[in-house]
Amino acid sequence: MIAYLERFVHGNDVESRQDDDDCSSLFNALDLQGNIDCPATGLAGKDFGGLYSSKPLALVRPSGADDVARVVKAAALSPSLTVAARGNGHSINGQAMADRGLVMDMRSMDDHFQVVRINDTAFVDVSGGALWEDVLERCVLGFGLAPRSWTDYLGLTVGGTLSNAGVSGQAFRYGPQTSNVAELEVVTGKGDIFVCSETENSQLFFGALGGLGQFGIITRARVLLQPAPDMVRWIRVVYTEFEDFTRDAEFLVTRREGDSFDYVEGFAFVNSDDPTNGWPSVPLDPNQAFDPTRIPQTAGSVIYCLEVAFHYRNNGHPSTVDRVVNRLLGRLGFDEHLKFEVDLSYMEFLLRVKRAEEHAKANGIWDAPHPWLNLFVSQSDIVDFDRHVFKNILKAGIGGPMLIYPLVRSMWDTRTSVVLPKDEIFYIIALLRFSPPDPKGPLAEKLVAQNHEIIQCCINKGFDFKLYLPHYKSQEEWKGHFGNQWTRFVERKAIFDPLAILAPGQKIFSRMIHHL
Ligand code: FAD
Q: pTM for the whole thing?
């Protein structure tokens, strides 16, 4: 095998062709249960962002952790090969790519799904390559159970979101998805397979959670479950003043369970009839209309929508649901003429973005570039952020949702690799741009430039913020991102992936040259 691996020192085209031949031979020698494409095909060099592309050497479809371990060990024996786990490729900036390296298609892993009960608590063991939408369906339909913490969109993999955080409107109560796993199986950058948890191989467990794929490839996760509700009342209410919106959102995320909604999110939108960015983006049902005469003359160019949801069971009396929901809404200060609500099943609610995906695919905007930006901003800076960013830089909208909602820091485990701003309450800002391909020129470049302007504004104003789903090009910038967590991150890297083989698309560490 070493003879094959010696070929993987890259140079010119002749060597590239030779690489492809040797790549196939290498994988025959590895005797995998899964299979491999040499050279890599289609999706392996692309992602949802559509801003970057790469040419991987091969696309590996592992069938299980053993295959993953064999491939990583082979890469470790080569002089310079890297390995990127690819979840569903829904990154924006090439994070799941490996230029001239090996891309591991985690979705090809053998199906693994088992509900286990430990001391009366239910968990589900799932493959790291499972899609959350499949986990939802199997847990709810088969067992009446469901994970507690979600992302808005569920066409993402378990390993992919756990490598970042996994945030949605339930995170204020249960923490991000990284706070809701009890155990992982991880293949390290040395090709060793470990089961890890809070008490067993805990450095690897906490390192891998939010670890941007740097310490290992998650091949299995044990996710905490709770009884699934049957139905959800999904409600949107409108605020013209930012301070009123944040006061109510923060009130809701700091109440105890039973005294608040089950889901709290929000978004900023443009005070106009623009079909994508304005009033029509608020109603939840085509039969509902937004009445702009209800907006006071004093309102600014950007106004706000608080989005909440209340879970209930089919056997509850409808009047009880109305009573509880009205009591909760009664404590809020929105404009009562601008309230929208629908009742839908729990699964329909959690799969709501899939409907938007179908729509976007039909309009051609799902496959166009997505220069998205996600930030966490401390509560103490959020009013200024609104003034400078929403009310100024983004006052015309972004062609998609501008999410903003509060999260609670103490629900996040600081032993994980995730990096947060300092305040106990901080906001997630998600600028989810959907734009058709611009026939006149490189629209995506202009939007990337606008993202830079926003980040620069945050720096210039001295805001306490962190990028979520971060993307940097130099190690200096990564050091700044991690701040006082950088030393721990580097120490974990030295232990679990000393040659820096894993997740090269994050551009945090460079592959160490291994002399054969
Ligand atoms: P990929 O993009 O394929 O991979 C992401 C990173 O993780 C890469 O570095 C990759 O190498 C690594 N990785 C992948 N699998 C593994 C594994 N098994 N083990 C170790 N490392 C691995 N995020 C939220 O938190 N909340 C949301 O509501 C939300 N909504 C989204 C909606 C859409 C439409 C999209 C496109 C993204 C959304 N995201 C959201 C972001 C999402 O969490 C990230 O894109 C994340 O990377 C998961 O996507 P993926 O499974 O496709 O992973």
A: 0.96
